[in-house]
């Protein structure tokens, strides 16, 4: 069995070049590839196109890449927690493609499944429709949306094995599994790395065939975006 383990995030991402298209897993700040993002910061890779559900916050996650002007384009669904993102968007420094969340998820899933296009009603009759093919099905209008794929997918799992099989926990299971399937090269960081064969096959969310590199991450902050508690 192929051993896909690499030493750390720097080794895993060393061939990511300027101008690469990246998928970055997670939902809000939950399940984001913290070590991978730090490696991109350390290597000062620029002109990135980042596909992510959100853009992090000003001082964490993808927000750090935005602060360092390493991102050329964001393809996202929700970006409301990041003032620097807003500033770059309004000043014309950053290209942005805002996509309805369900459409974003399906475009990524389609990329991993090898489906080049599909029809959805979301966005018909709005700015989202501009430049896209429309078609009527059973009396209802739909937009054609194309798949999304990436040069590299950076995902974060709770547990993985040396063959690249992954188990996600809670909300981290949202975008990470579909992004793992849609990258030409998928880099997985995990909180716990075990030998191949130790994971229960019934609990695996992403089979190792989708993962090319895996490493055990460290120093996870797991920051909470907005903590709400009763008074």
TrEMBL record:
Domain of life (superkingdom): Bacteria
Signal peptide: none
Molecular function in Gene Ontology: CoA-transferase activity
Alphabetical list of InterPro entries matching this protein: 3-oxoacid_CoA-transf_A, CoA_trans_fam_I, CoA_transf_BS, NagB/RpiA_transferase-like
Name of protein: Succinyl-CoA--3-ketoacid-CoA transferase
Keywords: Transferase
Keyword tRNA-binding recorded: no
Entry-linked Pfam families: CoA_trans (PF01144)
Family: Belongs to the 3-oxoacid CoA-transferase subunit A family.
């Amino acid at each position: 069995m192929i051993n896909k383990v690499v030493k750390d995030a720097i080794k895993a991402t060393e061939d990511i070049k300027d101008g690469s298209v990246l998928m970055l897993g997670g939902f809000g700040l939950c399940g984001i590839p913290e070590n991978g993002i730090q490696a991109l910061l350390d290597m000062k890779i620029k002109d990135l196109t980042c596909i992510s559900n959100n853009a992090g916050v000003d001082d964490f996650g993808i927000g750090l890449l935005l602060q360092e002007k390493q991102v050329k384009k964001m393809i996202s669904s929700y970006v409301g927690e990041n003032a620097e993102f807003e500033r770059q968007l309004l000043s014309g420094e950053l290209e942005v493609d805002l996509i309805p969340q369900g459409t974003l998820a399906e475009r990524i899933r389609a990329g991993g499944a090898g489906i080049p296009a599909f029809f959805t009603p979301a966005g018909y009759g709005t700015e989202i429709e501009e430049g896209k093919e429309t078609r009527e099905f059973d009396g209802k209008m739909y937009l054609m949306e194309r798949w999304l794929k990436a040069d590299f997918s950076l995902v974060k799992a709770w547990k993985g094995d040396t063959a690249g099989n992954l188990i996600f926990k809670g909300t981290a299971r949202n975008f990470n599994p579909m992004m793992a399937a849609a990258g030409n090269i998928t880099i997985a960081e995990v909180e716990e790395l075990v030998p191949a064969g130790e994971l229960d096959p019934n609990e695996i969310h992403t089979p190792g065939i989708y993962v090319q590199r895996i490493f055990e991450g460290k120093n996870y902050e797991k920051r909470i975006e907005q903590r709400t508690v009763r008074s």
